[in-house]
Amino acid sequence: MADMPLDEHRVANLANWNDRVPVHLGPGGYEVEAFDDPAWLSQVVRFDRDRLGDLTGLDVVHLQCHIGTDTVSLSRLGPRSVTGYDFSPAAIDAARDLGRRAGSSAEFVVGELYDAPGTLSPGRFDLVYTGIGALNWLPDIAGWAVVVATLLRPGGRLHLREGHPQLCGADDTRTDGLVCADVPVFGSAGPTTFDIPVSYEGDGTILEHSVTYEWNWSIGEVVTALIDAGLRIDELAEHRTVPWNALGDAMHAVAPFGEYELVDRPDRLAATYTLRATKLPA
User: Fold this and answer.
1) Under a CB-based contact definition with an 8 Å cutoff, are residues 35 and 98 in contact?
2) 259-262 and 251-254: which strand pairing?
3) 169-191: average pLDDT
4) Is the pTM of this model over 0.85?
5) Is domain 8-279 classified as CATH 3.40.50.150?
6) Backbone angles phi, psi at 109, to 5 degrees
7) What is the DSSP letter of 36?
8) What is the residue extent of each domain of the chain?
9) What is the mean pLDDT of residues 93-117?
10) For 183-201, what is each residue's pLDDT tens digit?
11) What is the b/e burial string over 265-280, where b = at least 16 CB atoms within 10 angstroms of the residue's CB?
C-alpha cells in the first residue's frame, strides 16, 4: 500500500494531537505516574480485559495508540510482542518514555494509519487493538478495514471499542438533560468541523491548534467495511457508558471502571460499542 499524503483535514488533526500530548501527560491527564505500579492497567484496558481473551504469546498491534497508556497496559497481559502505532511524533516520543519508565517491552512506531501495512509489514499480527476515540479521526473507513485485514494473520482478531454514533452525534452543549441529534451519524456525509480550545483530559490548557475534523462512522458503515475486507464479525455489544464525561451535567461517574453514563434514564443513550472480528482464511 503506497504512502498516503496528509490532506488539510489530517494536517489539522495532527497539529491538534501534537498539542494534546503535554496536556495529557500533565495534571488531570492520563495518569502516567500510575504505571510505576507494574500491575497498573489503563481504565480502557481494564474495561476491555474480559473480552480481549488470552493474549499469551500473541503479536499485538495497537493502532492510533497516542501516548501509549493502553499499549503498555496490553503489554502487561502476556503477549509475545506489542507494537503501538500513531501518526503523532510527539505522542510516540511520550509513549516511548512511558514504556521505558514502566519497564514495558512495547515498541512504538510513528506512521500514518493508512501506511501501516508498508511500515509494519502485512500478516504480522495476531491481534489488532483499536481503543476508544479512534475511528472518528479517519476519513476512509473502508481503507481502515483493509489496513486491519492486511496486518492480521489468517485467524487473527480485531478488538475495537469505539464511541457510539448516537453519542458522537449528540449535542453536548445542552443543559436541559435532553439527548438531541446534532452531528451526522454517517461518516460518508463527510467531516464535521470542531473548534474546541481545550482537550477532553488535562488541566484546561488552551490548545494552539484547536480546529479538528471528525467523521462519525455509523455501526453499519464499520461492519460493512470489515466484512468487505474479509473479516467475520464475532461480537457487537453496545454499552451505556463512556470513559469520559461527554455530556457535562447530564452524566455522572459509575462503578466499577469510573466511566460515565446519563444521570437520568441511561437506557436512552448507547454511548460506546465493542466489536470483535476474525480474519477469514484466504
Assistant:
1) yes
2) antiparallel
3) 91
4) yes
5) yes
6) -130, 135
7) G
8) 8-279
9) 97
10) 999 999 999 999 999 999 9
11) eeeebbbbbbbbbbbe
